[in-house]
Specification:
By secondary structure, this protein is an alpha+beta fold. The protein contains five helices and eight strands. Strands 1-2-3-4-5 form a five-stranded antiparallel β-sheet, sandwiched between helices. A hairpin with a 2-residue loop joins strand 3 and strand 4. Bound molecules: coenzyme A. The site of coenzyme A has 19 residues, from helix 1, strand 5, helix 4 and helix 5. Coenzyme A (COA) binds next to helix 1, strand 5, helix 4 and helix 5.
């Protein structure tokens, strides 16, 4: 467990966290991707569907999920595991990282990445790649701040939107700059 004061902590997520994670998931997609993804797509996101999805993910030991908690409230989450698409040179992947808008800029993101890299090491993975929408400059700045090196761009379809995503990589987990 990584602790920054008595109330803020990052811990491994449990099945019972699925509802709280789904809540953060939907809220942060709406606050982050307004203007990037179609309004009707963002409006259609349903917490119940994501809760089931996160329950399945949390039951599967092949990936790692962590939550950032402020007291009893889950304010962020991150997940990672084996790289999913066969990207050359990368075995580990940061699948997702989301912190509620009001809780951003207080170190939760950095602590969550630290937890995910520890989880990747447990899975015998030694590097990490992450994909991010090209226009998501906030997250891109965050990855660059953590020492991520631009890898490449590719198209991605989300809902009805044809977009571009870019990747950042750390050839070694030791290269992550905290
Ligand atoms: C990206 C995100 C996870 C970062 O988490 P966070 O808790 O806000 O970031 P932290 O407070 O841990 O910041 C860590 C460092 O990154 C920098 N950073 C974070 N967000 C930044 C931004 N938008 N622009 C520039 N720098 C940023 C911080 O300044 C800090 O560096 P410093 O200590 O030198 O000042 C969070 O802002 C978020 O959830 N954003 C919306 C969702 C999203 O885009 N997720 C990624 C999808 S691929």
């Amino acid at each position: 467990m990584i602790s920054r004061g008595p109330l803020l902590k990052v811990r491994r997520a449990e099945i019972d966290d699925a509802a709280a994670i789904a809540k953060v998931h939907v809220a942060t997609w709406r606050s982050t991707y307004g203007g990037m993804l179609p309004d009707d797509f963002l409006a259609s996101l349903a917490e119940a569907g994501y809760e089931e999805r996160w329950q399945r993910v949390l039951a599967d030991e092949s990936s790692r999920v962590y939550v950032a908690a402020d007291g009893r409230e889950v304010v962020g989450f991150a997940s990672g595991g084996r790289e999913r698409a066969g990207e050359d040179g990368y075995g580990g992947e940061l699948y997702a990282i989301y912190v509620l808008q009001d809780a951003q800029g207080r170190g939760h993101g950095r602590s969550l990445v630290q937890a995910v890299t520890a989880g990747l090491r447990e899975l015998d993975l030694s590097d990490m790649i992450v994909w991010v929408l090209r226009d998501n400059t906030g997250a891109r700045n965050f990855y660059e701040r953590l020492g991520g090196v631009y890898v490449r761009a590719q198209p991605i379809t989300i809902g009805s939107a044809l977009l571009e995503e870019v990747s950042y990589g750390w050839r070694s987990l030791d290269d992550v700059v905290y």
